[in-house]
Amino acid sequence: MLRSSYNPTNSNMLDSEFLQGQHSLLVRLSRQQNLSDLFECVLREAQHLTASDGGTLYLIKGEGKTTELEFTVMINDSLNININGARGDKIELHPLPLFLPNGNPNTHNVASFVALNKQTVNIPDIRLATEFDFTGTRLFDRHHKYESRSFLTIPLIDHQNDVIGVIQLINAQDPISNEIVPFNPNLNAPIEAMATYAAIALDNQILIQNHKDLLDSFIKSLAKITDVRSPHTSAHCQRIPLLTEMIAKAACEQKTGYFKDFQLSDEEWYELNVAAWMHDCGKLATPDFIVEKSTKLETVRDGIHGFNARVQSYKHELENTSLKKAIEQPHRKDQLAQVLMIELDQLEEERLFINTINKGGEFMSDEQIQRVKRIGQKQWTNAAGTKENLLTEDEIMNLCIRRGTINESERKTINRHIDVTIEILESLPFPKNLKRVPEYAGGHHERMDGTGYPKGLTREQMSIPARMMAVADIFEALTAKERPYKKPMPLSQAFSILARMRDDNHIDPDVFELFLLSNQWQEYGKRHMLPEQMDVTDVSPFVRHES
Question: 19 pLDDT exceeds 60?
Answer without folding.
Answer: no
